[in-house]
Amino acid sequence: MSAAGADPAPLLTLRVDRKVYRKARTEAVEAVRGLAFSLHAGEITCLIGPSGAGKTTTLRILLGLDRDFEGAVTPAPERAGIAMVFQDPRLLPWRTIEQNVRLGLPRERRGRDLDGLFASLGLGPWRGHFPGALSLGMQRRVALARALALEPRILVLDEPFVSLDDAAAAGLRGLVVDAVNRSGTCVLMVTHNVAEAIEIADRLLLVTPRPARLLASEPLDRRRSERDRAWIDATRRILATRYPDIVAP
Amino acid sequence: MALLARLLSLAVLLALWQGVSAYAEMRSLPAPSAVLAFILREARGGDLLFNVGVTLARVAVSFVIAMSLGVLLGIALGRSRLADRLLDTPLLVVLNTPALVITVLAYVWLGLNETAAIVAVALNKLPNVAVIMREGARGLDPGLEEMATTYRFDRRTWIAHVLMPQLQPFMVAAARSGISLAWKIVLVVELLGRPNGVGFAINYYFTLFDVTAVIGYSLVFMSVMLAIDALLLQPLDAHVRRWR
Fold this sequence. Notes:
Chain A: This is ABC transporter ATP-binding protein. Chain A: Belongs to the ABC transporter superfamily. The complex is a heterodimer of chains A (249) and B (244). Chain A is of the alpha/beta class. Chain A has helices at 55-62, 97-103, 115-120, 136-149, 166-183, 194-200, 229-242; strands at 12-21, 29-39, 44-48, 70-74, 82-85, 154-158, 186-191, 203-207, 214-219. Helices cover 30% and strands 23% of the residues of chain A. Chain B has a single domain, classed as MetI-like fold (Orthogonal Bundle). Chain B has 10 helices and no strands. Chain B has helices at 2-23, 32-45, 47-79, 81-96, 99-110, 114-138, 142-150, 155-193, 198-207, 211-240. The longest helix of chain B has 39 residues, at 155-193. The relative contact order of chain B is 0.12.
């Protein structure tokens, strides 16, 4: 458990002073105003905020997909060792599951042994199938496999468990936590499901409605294995009284 | 079942033809049997094979030229707004110029030779390919582009695994519509300025008012082109869509 600030060097620091969308013939929309945080090794950080709050915008900036903003990402996204799991799995439908995972790797590492990874995600029997043959939950697993195969320093997930049934979501959540426990990967997860975030996060970043601003950074100190239903509900109630606009009671 | 229906409709058509030709004058509508006899006679003499071969070669060469240039042009138009603005008008002009005009101009400017014939066919088909490919290149999935950027796909990987699979259905569509266009135009091109090929033969028999020969030649050539579509392009189409 590393509280922010205790760690000497963060893996990544993001600072967005302002991000405005300007389109011809429409009013400019300010998506983000003052959102800054650092990510540390072995820590799960959850970014929580209402829908449309600019969370996805923030992720796009962090990934280097959007460079038109006021602020800075250090180190530059392409050098930070980030692997991304998109909300819609974004697999290549014309390539098999195995090819999808291998193509995410740099050319010289494409031939590496992935048996262990496929087995740990329960994807072994599906390696030769096309993504279209899989359920959304399984496709998300493939997207997670593609990200984990890179052995990233930072794993970024955008609403990875949304529109999955409880069992599938819990399964996938367990796989992410396992990956962190095994290799000390740093995880940044965007979600609007507070209970889910409380269950696995080391730190919650609460974001206001648009324009997104960092409202609070809430560390959660209890060990993940000791977080039971009662503790999650209690924590959620405390947060709801403190931040009634963001956390529903 | 589908094949049976097809064969049945073909048989009905042939029977109808045979029936009508019995009443019509022999010279204006020969019976299927007479046409078949002509085809066999012409094939034995070697003329049929030679003329069909020459025409097929012209179709093949101009097809390859039009496809490769049209695909490149279409991708450029779909990916770059500037290229689209600059080239859209010329493309529309060529697209709407009658095949006959392009052919005549090609012969006038390049001379009555093989190059002119091939350029004429290719130029007639190229804008069509470019327009179809432009649609394909415009419709690339932005989500996959973002994925390819975050996973830092190198250029070769992007082309082979992201770009081409999205363009393949459009390429096959362009090829299939293009080949039927090319073989219709190539006959006109041959009629106007070549001393051989199916178009030349049809023109020759037309001056003799030999309807049997005209129908015979067009039937043979049509069958060859249909066979190419059924045996080559349709399986290709099924192959590029196999993941769906």
